[in-house]
Amino acid sequence: MTVKPDLDIEQVLQKFSLTSPFYLKLFSLLVFAGVTNAFYSLNYVFAATDSRYRCKYPNCENFDIEQTLNITLDNSCHRFSFVDNQTFCSASNIDMNKLVKCDQWMYEDENTFVGEFNLGCEDWKRAFVGTVHSFGYMIGLLIMGPLADKIGRKKLVIITGLTAAFMGLGRSIAQSYWLYVSLELIEALFGDSYSSTFMLGVEMVTKENRVSFITLMTASTSLAGILMALTAFAIPYWRNFLRAIYAPALLFLFYAFVLDESFRWLLITGKKDEAKSVIRKTAKYNNVDITEDELDKIDYESENQGGNSMGQVLKMTLSSRKMVLRFCACVCMWVTALFNKYTLLINSVELEGNKYINFGLATFSELPASLALGFLLKRFKRKPPLTYSFLLTGVFCVAQSFVPKGHIILSTSLFLIGKFMATISYAIVYLYTSELFPTYTRNTMHSLCSSLGRTATMLAPQTPLLMRYWYGLPSVIVGGLSLITGLVVMTMPETAEDVLPDTVTQAENVGVRENRDNVTRF
Questions:
Q1: For residues 224 and 300, which has the higher predicted lDDT (pLDDT)?
Q2: Residue 261: left (phi > 0), alpha (psi -120 to 50), or beta?
Q3: For the chain, which residues make up each domain, given as ranges?
Q4: Which residues lie below 8 Å from residue 84, measured CB to CB, with a gap of 6+?
Q5: Structure pTM?
Q6: pLDDT grade for 229, boundaries at 50, 70 and 90
Q7: pLDDT reported for residue 518
């Protein structure tokens, strides 16, 4: 049933300026959630850092027998020692019968992730931490997305924030590698607060202020990356580093008292009395006049939701052919945007030069990107900036891959420009997807697209291993995917001029004004 409201939620939100106490408090809480979540997504880059090591046996340390003798042995690590006192290792005096495989190691720094868990000759286990996190995040989104649509954004922000805190602090005292990995998996499954945080913010601003919100969130995550690099530099011991970045998340306990639920979600789920109560409290706090008569006239267009299970949500939203095509395009955008984001960040520590500076520069590039983002979205709406940011990411990353080693300034500059463009595309994808689907399934569909996109982030931690075959291979892959996705975006509608859709019918009509030229969009 459709009821034309005398006062809709957009008009209610327009009564509060972005500088009002209401928005200052809301944005402060959401930025804190975004910053802490940014810490958790990539902290393994510094927590699970590498450490130089050598064979424990003193006779033939780190001797590459295959390279010297031009033979192939059944040992991926290529480090051997001798069973006697032979100390000079060369092809002329090696007795193959006296060789034994080296299985004990001495570390340059015992107080590292690799040293404490004795991961010598098992480099894959460091990368595996990132892969586990991405896999858990992918599955977790399928759980937490529908749950956010069912129980609300606020509760999910609190639950996920506290879960991350406890799992992170637990990893800081873990004495077993596999316990560490298990806690990493649990955190990724149930500890990501960004999706609910972002959706809450988008639903609590008017269409004119969505750009301001996404600019703020993108800038905050950039500052989080810089802060994390500084923290890792100041606190190099990985256990203390984890404690430093996870302990602040215990403050999510207080969100139960200071964070408001989304007005829009309360209304669309039939909780009008609760929505009126929150609006009444907020108006009083901000000295805004909203009468009881106006509150009684607030209504919302809704459809029969039929529950919030994943199957029902998919049936409701994907019963439309147009929604199916948009969903497929969104998955493509998410795969590329997430692969670009994590591959470039992870590989920044593999560039020539200081890894802390390189990672800090890679994350700092997100700050000017967030400022450019606000200008681009206000001036050129959504689709053109998204299209060109993907295409330019492709161009600069492919170019960087062909720069010879030794040209550090040129290589790093192209890399950072590519990261700059990738940040813009990732931020727009996050906002753009939320504008394409109806309110009662928005978090679910957004999470589903993001979840499927995480298949790419499972591969991202492994991309540094590709440098063994060709230094520029990771950048070429990023560039190729970006060029293809830029072409896909050209088929999508413009959403900047539309309010957030609340039903499938409204969602289908997003961008209708743009399509008066009869060009087919989906």
A1: 224
A2: beta
A3: 9-50+122-517, 53-107
A4: 59, 98
A5: 0.71
A6: confident
A7: 40
